[in-house]
Specification:
- By secondary structure, the protein is an alpha+beta fold.
- It has a single domain, classed as YbaK/aminoacyl-tRNA synthetase-associated domain (YbaK protein, Alpha-Beta Complex), CATH 3.90.960.10.
- It has a five-stranded mixed beta sheet with strand order 5-3-4-6-9. A four-stranded antiparallel beta sheet has the order 1-2-8-7, with no helix packed on it.
- A hairpin with a 6-residue loop joins β7 and β8.
- It starts with 10 loop residues before the first strand and ends in a 5-residue tail after the last strand.
- 43% of the residues are buried.
């Protein structure tokens, strides 16, 4: 199979390579029910040393920068309660944590979650966190620009490998809320 975007040596429909994914991501692919068929989610094998976006696009092609998105875990606090959520924004932008995220979560204060919290709560590797397979009780805040792309390159749950996902599929994930201006 040829990857729908980018130039990768290995591209496989995600349902055909579940053993390459972390358990929560593999489970989400197995249970996939969205309008976009699961086999349109494509796993591409990549070298973990190139996992971070800036280095990744230098190695795999600068054109991928405009088609890549980052998924980050945020923590909203109000009183003594902390709410975890994930945000998905284009790699060319940054998450508006103190504005859009804070308001959407109804938090007094919002910040990026620590690496330990992000990895332990998602069951994914830092640098590979993906919106597919997040805890079901989390909000997934998705920038509208991500949904508009035909295909988006995101993490696979591991530093090795990425997923190529039709943008509109993110709007159908559990807890997804599509927002204008999440990425600034």
């Amino acid at each position: 199979m040829r990857a729908p975007i980018g130039d990768f040596d290995t591209a496989v429909p995600a349902p055909d390579c579940l053993d390459e994914l972390t358990a929560p991501v593999a489970d989400a692919v197995r249970r996939w029910t969205g309008a976009v068929p699961a086999d349109r989610i494509v796993y591409v094998e990549t070298d973990p040393q190139w996992a971070d976006t800036a280095v990744f696009v230098e190695h795999y092609g600068r054109e991928l920068l405009e088609q890549s998105a980052n998924c980050v875990v945020v923590a909203g606090r109000r009183g003594g309660e902390t709410t975890l959520a994930a945000c998905l924004v284009l790699s060319t932008t940054k998450v508006d944590v103190n504005g859009v995220v804070r308001r959407q979560l109804g938090a007094r204060k919002a910040s990026f979650a620590s690496m330990d919290t992000a990895t332990s709560e998602t069951g994914m590797e830092y640098g590979g966190i993906t919106p597919i397979g997040l805890p079901h009780d989390w909000a997934l805040l998705v920038d509208s620009a991500v949904v508009d792309l035909p295909y988006v390159l995101v993490g696979s749950g591991r530093r090795r490998g990425k997923l190529l996902v039709p943008g509109k599929a993110f709007a159908e994930l559990p807890g997804a809320v599509v927002l204008e201006g999440l990425g600034v």
